[in-house]
Amino acid sequence: GGPNKPGKKLLGFKAVPTSTADEIVVPEGYTAQVLIPWGTPLHSRGPAFKKDASNTAADQERQIGSNHDGMHLFPLGKDSGLLTLNHEYVDTTGLYADGSEVITREKVNKALAAHGVSVVKVERDRRSGKWKNVDSRYNRRVTGSTPVTFSGPVTLKHDALKSNNAPQGTLNNCSSGFTPWGTYLACEENWNSYFGTEDASWAPDAEQKRYGLAAATAYRWHEADERFDLAKNPKELNRFGWVVEIDPFAPNSKPVKRTALGRFKHEGATVTESKGRVVVYSGDDQDGEYVYKFVGEGRWRDRIRRGQSPLDHGTLYVAKFTDDGRGAWLPLEFGKGALTAAGGWKDQADVLLRTRTAADAVGATKLDRPEWVAVHPGNKDVYLTLTNGAGNGGAVGPRKPNPYGHIVRWSEKNGDNTSLSFEWDIFVLSGDPAHDPAVKLGAEAIHGSPDGIGFDEDGRLWIQTDISNSSQNLPSKGYGNIGNNMLLASDPKTGEIKRFLVGPRGAEVTGLTFAADGRSLFVNIQHPGEATTAWGTPTVQNPRVVSNWPDFDPAGRPRSATVVITKDDGGKIGT
Ligand code: FEO
Ligand code: CA
Ligand code: CA
Ligand code: CA
């Protein structure tokens, strides 16, 4: 074991070619198995999935949610664990039997129930080697309606959080993280899209504009639930945009929104430690936004021993990248730099509620949609996917515009993740040399829009892609050769990249976690055939992404699902 053990080739598998087929493709000698698709009952006696989408909101509360995303397996042993995963959003053409033309409270409730997080026990059958979900007292759904609480500098006592209803729910949970003390971090990304209003007198203030709030919204929940009406309940939106801590081993515990980590469109929350302190990296996934890190104050073990949260005490920083390959972490601390009373800031809670504006004020570097972060288990280098965008930030955004994205990497000073300076380079410029000669990738490695990213314990860097359905498989968008979204593995030392898995049509590949022995890899297939299928009114006019995976039932619907990959000889994944 150990990252990059000398003399050992990290990537031992035979790369798979690109694919436009509506199936999962894995290398020779590997097998993929579908687990817990959307609608799977959480307990064996729970409501069965109905393929015509006639399950009620009450049914959905007791079923696996939709659009699986970030995920972590908390091991209970070599052959079992608590699979904890995000459900990012709902596809309203697929969620309801009669479509979404008319919005009712029942429909809003069903959508809320399909969002959030699932905790489900999974076990490997010793004989067949297959994984299955099983009944357990830990099995749980956290949804858009679950009671939640707040901790850190912004609490429920703060005026900004005094909305008209009880604190509840987490929404648009995209990527995630996990802590060394055994909890899960669900992140709230595009939460602004759930709020709207019919009130013509409502207009966004500067802060609401900065977070993308608008009267018109595709979900239209406000038509049936005043909780989401910007004019009638203007403070509810301040309860979203946070990192949410969930203890999968305490099924009755309330999720806690950890406000010290800031409020933005959190893609993920990647946790590492240095000198006993906790460090959390988080991208704000929008074109021209920033990457942040939180550094805990004092040793996290001491905090836990004293019954405190290591995520409630510390400093939030935002990154500045300079064209000489260096960078610095700028503190978002009330009273420092531009963030003073004279600059219009009230206190630390104000800085955190308006994190994006605070980051603007200190002069952070705009990036091309910062998505996931991964920390190398050996040298602690940090890798960040910049999925695509305008080509922001000078040298750190070298392709202008940037339809394929790239991965930037940095070494924190002295290999210490709490350091406030770093040196960066570009690990890979994604894309296809047929469309951009600056891309140095062979047929086995071409890809676009890197998004999910993570290391295994041996130091392989796993890269997942999220090419949008408006570009996927379209030559006119430069995506004619790249095929469906995929999972690749890379060797960070040599730069070698090889395609390991290709997903079905119209899906992104996201979420990444391993069994304790490294011999099973779990990934999520999100939004196969998103809004393109025969049962709904197509909203994406791209026939190359139509899917009916994984059921292939003409009367059914495509369903997001987890996929487990094992090596037929029982070996470690990627060897
Ligand atoms: Fe939910 Fe940034 O992808
Ligand atoms: Ca993502
Ligand atoms: Ca994405
Ligand atoms: Ca997604």
TrEMBL record:
PROSITE patterns: TAT
Coiled-coil segments: none
Signal peptide as annotated in the record: none
Pfam families (UniProt xref): PhoX (PF05787)
InterPro entries linked: PhoX, TAT_signal
Family annotation (PANTHER family): DUF839 DOMAIN-CONTAINING PROTEIN, SLR8030 PROTEIN
Protein name: PhoX family phosphatase
Organism: Actinocorallia aurantiaca
Record lineage: Bacteria, Bacillati, Actinomycetota, Actinomycetes, Streptosporangiales
